[in-house]
Write a structure and sequence with these properties.
alpha/beta, 263 residues, globular
Length: 263
């Protein structure tokens, strides 16, 4: 059985131990995601070293500017993201995570929108998958997509909406990626959204080191724990774990246009 973590934030420190633990849990792929120019450069370097040292693993990088960091983003930062994609088109599979966060609103709404729109354009320009962070901002997120258009491959990362938001996301062609939040006691709306999502639109993620699933909640999360969330979702869906793992593996391959692997 092979699980795929569609969204994590690993760092170079301790990545060897992380890989040993994830493989012991049956996880054979992950996507490393940046949230700023510096962390984007770091995840590309990390994915490159993992690809070289562990060629049997399936890995990719996503580069972008998180809405929390939008207030400090410059035109030069966006140009740097373009250069990173151009320099490593095989390893860099997506743009993000980007979007809107009106819960914390560390950056103004206007600036978040501007930087989000710029990264939608970047994903289209380079034909890369767009990885979206949206919190307390569904209507604004959908409005921006109506105005800008939706990239060919878009992922609603760490999906925390309900069935209505799931249906609207699916209608615009997006994948929904479910994190450990779906295992939380107070996340019934997320579970109902999952049950309303077609199997070919579902991804599983950790968002490590954040959002460890039950029964590990409160501890630092790790890539290997995608197997815990995946197993929970398999049971919720009524599928056996092997079939669910195969489907979500293939969905992640398709979502990021990764080189296929025989399972």
């Amino acid at each position: 059985m092979s699980w795929f973590d569609s969204h994590a934030h690993p760092t170079q420190a301790g990545i060897g131990d992380e890989i040993l633990a994830m493989r012991a849990a049956g996880v054979e792929g992950f996507i490393a995601v940046g949230t700023s120019v510096s962390s984007s450069e770091a995840v590309v370097d990390l994915v490159g070293s993992v690809h070289e040292s562990f060629p049997e693993l399936t890995v990719g990088a996503v580069v972008g500017i998180h809405p929390h960091d939008a207030g400090s983003a410059t035109n030069e930062d966006l140009e740097t993201l373009s250069r990173i994609i151009e320099d490593d088109p095989v390893l860099v599979r997506g743009v993000g995570e980007c979007g809107l966060d009106l819960f914390y609103e560390y950056s103004s709404r206007e600036v978040q929108e501007e930087v989000f729109r710029s990264q939608i354009a970047l994903a289209k320009r380079f034909d890369r998958t767009l990885v979206v962070h949206t919190r307390d901002a569904w209507e604004d997120t959908f409005r921006i997509f109506e105005e800008e258009g939706v990239p060919d491959r878009t992922i609603m990362h760490c999906f925390v909406g309900g069935p209505d938001e799931a249906q609207r996301s699916i209608a615009m062609g997006a994948y929904l990626s479910f994190s450990g939040i779906v295992t939380f006691k107070n996340a019934e709306n997320v579970r109902q959204a999952f049950l309303a999502t077609p199997l070919d639109r579902i991804l599983v993620e950790t968002d490590a080191p954040y959002l460890a699933p039950v029964p590990l909640r409160g501890r630092p999360n790790s890539i290997g724990n995608v197997a815990v969330t995946g197993s929970f979702l398999a049971e919720l869906s009524g599928l056996n774990r092997l079939d669910f793992a195969r489907h979500t593996w293939q969905n992640t391959i398709d979502a990021f246009q990764l080189a296929p692997k025989t399972l």
